[in-house]
Amino acid sequence: MWIRFSLVFAAALLGWSLQPATLWANDRAKAEPAPASEAKTVIVPFELIGSRHMVVEVKLNGKGPYRLIFDTGAPTMLINPRIAKDAGVTDSEIKGLFGAGEKTIKTFELGELKIDDLSTTVMDHPTVKAISQAFPRIDGIVGLTFFARYKMTIDYQKREIAFVENGYVPVNTMANMMKLMTVKQGPAPIVAAAGQWGMQVDKSSDDTEDGVNVVNVLPGSAAAVAGLRQGDRLLTIDGRWTDSVADVYQAAGAVPAGREATLTILRAGERLELKVQPKLGF
Amino acid sequence: MRAIVFVLGLLVLSAGSYAQVPPGQPPGQAPTPKELPSYSIPFKLTNTQHIMVRAKLNGKGPFNLIVDTGAPALFISTETAKKCGVEIDKRGWANFDSFVLEGGVEVPKAKGRVEDLYQLKAMNGMGLPGVELHGVIGYNILAQFRIEYDLTKDRMVWTRLNYTPPPLLLQPGGKGGKDNTLEGLGGMMKMLGGMMGKKANLEARPRGFLGVELADTDRGVVVTNVLAQSPADQAGLRKGDRIVSVGGRECATVAEVFKRTNRRAEGEELQLQIERDGKEQELAIVLGKGL
Known about the structure:
The structure holds two protein chains of two kinds. By secondary structure, chain A is an alpha+beta fold. Chain A folds into two domains: 14-182, Acid Proteases (Cathepsin D, subunit A, domain 1, Beta Barrel); 199-276, PDZ domain (Pdz3 Domain), CATH 2.30.42.10. Helices cover 21% and strands 32% of the residues of chain A. Chain A is built from eight helices and 17 strands. In chain A, strands 3-4-8-5-7-6 form a six-stranded mixed barrel. In chain A, strands 12, 13, 14, 15, 16 and 17 form a six-stranded antiparallel β-sheet that branches. In chain B, helix 3 (118-126) packs parallel to helix 6. Chain B folds into two domains: 4-195, Beta Barrel (Cathepsin D, subunit A, domain 1), CATH 2.40.70; 212-286, PDZ domain (Pdz3 Domain, Roll). By secondary structure, chain B is α+β, with helices and mostly antiparallel strands. Chain B has helices spanning 4-7, 78-84, 118-126, 139-142, 180-183, 185-195, 231-234, 254-261; strands at residues 38-42, 44-45, 51-57, 60-67, 74-76, 93-96, 99-101, 110-114, 135-137, 145-149, 155-160, 205-206, 212-217, 220-226, 242-246, 249-250, 269-276, 279-286. In chain B, strands 2, 3, 4, 5, 6, 7, 8 and 9 form an eight-stranded mixed β-sheet that branches. In chain B, strands 13, 14, 15, 16, 17 and 18 form a six-stranded antiparallel β-sheet that branches. A three-stranded antiparallel β-sheet of chain B has the order 1-11-10, with no helix packed on it.
């Protein structure tokens, strides 16, 4: 395990160009998104086990059902070697770099949902094992590469998950990780507003209070028309916190020109709401 | 192995071992949907493909937290807990006087475990997520809501459920539930990250400000307004000017102008070719501060 681990870092340090996209090309979501009119809701029940994890039953390559933890914090799928072998997933091994254990599930079924060629990590995860020892057997994790393809609603009270296809194509997790670890870090990214507001904000580094200061409002601008004034403390844009200058640009980046957004400000100790309609420009 | 530490996700056990415990109670009765308060919560997908929301704890923050059904509870890093000035009990748990999510969700008496999860340590140490991660939101908070996730949107919907979720079944005790096999990875990755000069690139620079309103017209991209006192105004750009090119690249639409200018920071010089009264001319404008 440690050998593999250091090999990867050797690769990273040497800056190998790995072209992971082609290595794991078969990981792409192949399911065509259903047109909105045909998109139907599929309800899948889950069990809430004693460790308070959600457990769902899935079929892999028609075999199973196997019990997996449904984990919104997992970027990908994971199954243990036992069910990988049982369902014939092991045969599909891509003898990839460093024996990454990245394999493909030809058909993955959760309730009425079915996906072809879903990539998965095969590994005996210590946490999964630990949970399995205290509770009924668990054999892996369902992660983002599966659920990202759906608008998904988790209801802990009803113990069910509702899925509607949304056309989203998840990225290849392994390739993405490789890219993140090998790519050189550039300068800080630039954040841009989507429209023109006509204002300037600032915040000193020792200012830890909520919001930023409005230090300039250009006459005739969208911000001026909305009634924003120099000296106002800007707290939120469109329901997003503006606790740093970058926050302001990020929040304004989600408001396209012409769409009205609500600003919360503090003026003379009073909380006010203003409506701003940013212009097309910058 | 490399990816495994991330891919594994944030599947965590609460500290303390689980004895044999009965399964959770059966599902509760369906609520009356109309009365349930609903919140639109901004989220971001990190570079590591984790769903991240922002929270203020005890009025401090915002902190970046992963939405994680694979965690039994709210987990907060020790450094973050320190910033919140929260008291940590002998078993490593803390009660937060206030827990507010960006978008408006408030969780009264939120209980969280103060612990440095190796997964977060590893990712932060390598600067992989693109933001610093301060913790995860797990079952004890998530179960109070019906939550809609849709990665084609930039917000998720949290609806407060009118019931009390089954409690956590925690057994006091040492490190029984921890996965010691992977525990060492966090520090290791952090160290390697340091060696490679990799660290979280947490700063974001604002795009520079010009001060023009633009419109797509028959004759191309036209300036429809120049804000007084703006860099565009000071450089002599006028209403009616047509933008021919930006930085030597022709722009036929406003979208193309944005594409050529969206990654230009404050203080950078923009080369504009414009057409005024049938004549073309060059303008060099230093982008100012603002949006």
